[in-house]
Amino acid sequence: MWGENLHDIAIVGQGMIYGKGLTRQANKREGNKALSLKLCRNVLVRDVSFLMAGHFAILATGVDNLTIDNIKIDTNRDGIDVDSCRHVRISNVTANTPWDDAIVIKGSHALGFARDTEDMTITNCEVGGFENGTFLNGTYKRSGPPPERNGPTGRIKIGTESEGGFKNITISNCVFDYSRGLALETVDGAQLEDVSISNITMRDIANAPIYVRLGRRMRAPEGVPVGSIKRVNISDVTVYNADPRYSSMIMGIPGHDIEDLRLRNIRIYYAGGGTKEQAAIDPPEKETEYPEPYRQGEMPAYGFFVRHVKGLEMSNVQVSYLKDDARPAFVLDDVKGAEFDMVKGEHAPGVPVFRVKDVSDLVLFRCGVPDVQEAKVGRKDY
Q1: What is the pLDDT of residues 341-361, one digit of tens each?
Q2: Tell me, what's the pLDDT at 268?
Q3: CB-count burial class (<10 Å; 0-12, 13-18, 19+) for 65
Q4: pLDDT by residue (tens digit) across 299-314?
Q5: Cβ(358)–Cβ(378) under 8 Å?
Q6: With DSSP H G I counted as helix, E B as strand and the rest as coil, what are the percentages for the chain, rounded to 5?
Q7: Cβ–Cβ < 8 Å for 310, 361
Q8: Residue of 15, 3, 13, 103 whose CA lies nearest to 56
Q9: Cα 267 to Cα 247: distance, rounded to the nearest angstrom
Q10: 242: exposed, middle or buried (C-beta count within 10 Å: 0-12, 13-18, 19+)?
């Protein structure tokens, strides 16, 4: 089903939209969406189920005043894609998408010009990566995609397509189960600003639980400058059994810092098992490549790896592991203004909690190590 330049429309009821495994066709995208809407307004989708719904179960491009409520998705690619839309409410959705993203906010060039996605809420949703069809039939099998897919996807993400910006967005009261973690990405020139994320629980996470990435892939018209990430708050997050290879990652690029990021009331249990060799890794920048934690490679920290950031505050954050890990809990590189209050990291004997390099205005208070307030640190362990 598709609609363009429509208004005041609704798809409601207890029925199922069965895409019968629609897939992407070579060199074109016609015929691979269960529901596609473009340049519409005042749209409601409620109480419907989607099964094997193709590349997009729901694709909304340039749609304003969109409400998606109480739907179930069990599909072979993306669940809900919201691209260049305004005034969007997504609530009470369960999306099982092992091969791709469950709920994703995009800013592509599909309209022929950049348009911000703004004024959006995602709340009371569950996302996961069980085997296709096993969510709706109630068996919840976990075989998932083959290893080359690097585990199930099934996450909530902002990006990757990011020419249009992302502004004034909240994500709250959501559950991630057998999926990748939360991802916030702008790599094509977009401004990602004023985003608040709260009350998130995750179990069995296949990559970084929290991934915040500013890059310069620049899939945008020539002359568009590098984007920005500013004023992001993430709070009240609980994670159990996260992939041991990838810490949470917060990464800008040289000359372009992520700015004003606050993390509060976060508890993460990683699987652990990291080695001293991993602790010595200096991750490549890969600033022009597709942003994805596994493409960045293994991390020298098991908890958080932070690089090219200006203005970071962490309070009441605790990370630990399920089996011994030889890496520091926190690694900071090129960070300006880092304040840690009641931030704790489990650590093996002889392994520091914090490893910092080229950090200015560092404050450590009640962090299980001697309190620190230093204007400039070249390289040091705490």
Answers
A1: 999 999 999 999 999 999 999
A2: 98
A3: middle
A4: 999 999 999 999 999 9
A5: yes
A6: 5, 55, 40
A7: no
A8: 103
A9: 13
A10: buried
Mean pLDDT estimate for the chain? 95
Beta bridge partners of 229: 192
Write the single-letter amino acid at 80.
I
Instruction: For 137, list phi and psi in degrees, rounded to 5.
Output: -90, 0
- % residues pLDDT > 90 (the chain): 94
The answer to whether 185 and 162 have CB atoms below 8 angstroms apart is: yes
Q: Could you give the CA distance from residue 243 to residue 204 in angstroms, rounded to a whole number?
A: 8
Residues near 232 by beta carbon (within 8 Å), at least 6 away in sequence: 184, 192, 195, 196, 197, 212, 258, 260, 261, 262
Handedness of CA 309, 180, 172, 74 (dihedral sign): positive
Cis omega (within 30 of 0) for bond into 160: yes
Dist. CA 257–CA 342, nearest whole Å: 25
In the chain, domain spans? 2-381
Q: If you search the block for the tokens 């066709």, which residue do you land on?
A: 25
DSSP lists the bridge partners of residue 86 as 64, 118
CATH number attached to the domain at 2-381? 2.160.20.10
Is residue 27 scored above 50 in pLDDT?
no
Q: How far apart are CA 142 and CA 132, in angstroms?
A: 10
pLDDT value of residue 150: 84
At 35-87, the pLDDT tens digits run 999 999 999 999 999 999 999 999 999 999 999 999 999 999 999 999 999 99
3-class secondary-structure state, position 326: coil
Distance between CA atoms of residues 131 and 126, nearest Å: 15
Q: What is the pTM of this model?
A: 0.96
DSSP 176: E
Cα separation, 328 vs 356, in Å, equals: 10
Residue written as token pair 């995609």: 145
